[in-house]
Amino acid sequence: MATSRVSVTSTAPMPAPVTASKDKEASLGASQKEAADAYLRKHNIPAIMEQIMTGLIHSRPEDPKKFIVKKLEDARNAKARNQSMLVFSRENLVALHRIFDVTGKGHITLDQYKAAMQDLGATNYNASPNGHEKDRIYLDDFVDNAFASLLRPPIPVSEPK
User: Fold this and answer.
1) What is the value of pTM for the model shown?
2) All domains of the chain in start order, with CATH
């Protein structure tokens, strides 16, 4: 009785064993990501980019790259003057209030106010503006609070441990 031998070969590569060097690479990658995140937070890059992108979406300029470059130059110049960068004009804020004032009564609710502040990218706004007790935030109070929150530095994010 003859036995035949069957040889099975696989064309799929064998997975490489996990080694200490791969663990080291993953650890190094994680620490680099943490360092990059800390760097971005330290220089307030996420807030700046959020303001620029919000302005870009709101303005919809013909040349978005030129718009972004100008806003970055404005940010640099504002920093040199020790000022905050503003993306929105008074007219922009009035228009935003009107968008939320769907009834045309001249005021918005506190929830609408908070949603508008989030739309602006304002992270450090007055959560209890004039009129909040009656759930009526009027245009001038909205605009004043929006400008104040956009000029105020954002609340610092604590560094990861």
Assistant:
1) 0.51
2) 90-151 (1.10.238)
